[in-house]
């Protein structure tokens, strides 16, 4: 089993939580400045997000999903007015690309303090750090994912989602509240191809950031699992050696069918939010 990278630094008890609080104070202040001082941020339906972050039932995890338009999406999308961005106790856990955020020991330590879970792109949905993310959901925590899997700054439809998020929804002991979020404008704050194919050294200013928070997506998982078993009988894809997904015990073909159905549902809701966001942005 692969070893989890610097997991001890992600613990809330590490040095009595002081380094984590310092990181969230600093990063939170940065997010607030970029979102509200340097740029203009508007949020539709922010109350739903705030309510679920602060007051969801005990033991029930929250899983937020969003499109991925820049390397600054997290933390800046949480920097809007009224959000407890600098409160480490309420802050999200987030899946973060290992090749970007965990390049060396210093970055790994800082991102671990920031409640980031490293994900190795291409290593599959059953890699060890996905089990760590599952544990955070099992603890009733808030986890954020970018299910598209990578940054895309094209002004187009939500791309086909990776299956990692769907697998977490299925495997969590308590089904999480799944809240979709779609944003626009951060691709202008941190463009990928600003100067000779590089990002700017600092966030750009005088841009408009628009965030649309949806309503929780409900999944009838028992029914979806039954449907997956039925539809998977027609699958003839080569196997990848996936384990049976406890507690439901689906074989690999049924898991693929289920994860595809869950992902399609999330993608459709996110696309409707994207279209709604474009309408409210129109002059």
Automatic annotation (TrEMBL):
Give residue ranges for domain Phospholipid/glycerol acyltransferase: 62-186
Record's keyword terms, sorted:
Acyltransferase, Lipid metabolism, Membrane, Transferase
CC annotations in GO = membrane
Q: Where do the TM regions start and end?
A: none
Q: Which GO terms describe its biological process?
A: phospholipid metabolic process
Q: Which domain of life is it from?
A: Eukaryota
Q: What is its main location?
A: membrane
Where's it found, cell-wise?
Membrane
Q: Signal sequence span per UniProt?
A: none
Q: What is this protein called?
A: Tafazzin family protein
Organism this protein belongs to = Rhodamnia argentea
Q: Which gene underlies this protein?
A: LOC115736380
